[in-house]
Amino acid sequence: MKVGIIGCGYWGPNLVRNSNALDDVDVAAVCDPRAERLDFIRRQFPAIGRLTNDADDILKAPDIDAVIIATPVSTHYPLGMEVLANGKHLFMEKPFTATVEQAESLINLAEQKRLQIMVDHTFIYTGAVQTIKRLIDDGDLGELYYFDSVRVNLGLFQHDVNVIWDLAPHDVSIMDYLIDRKPRAISATGMAHFDSDIENIAYISTFYDGTLLGHIHVNWLAPVKVRKTLVSGSKKMVIYDDTEPSEKVKVYDRGVEMIQNRDQVYDLLIQYRTGDMLAPQIDLTEALKKVTREFCDAVNENRSPRTDGQAGLRVVQILEAANRSMRENGRVIELS
Question: Which domain holds residue 43?
Answer without folding.
Answer: 2-115
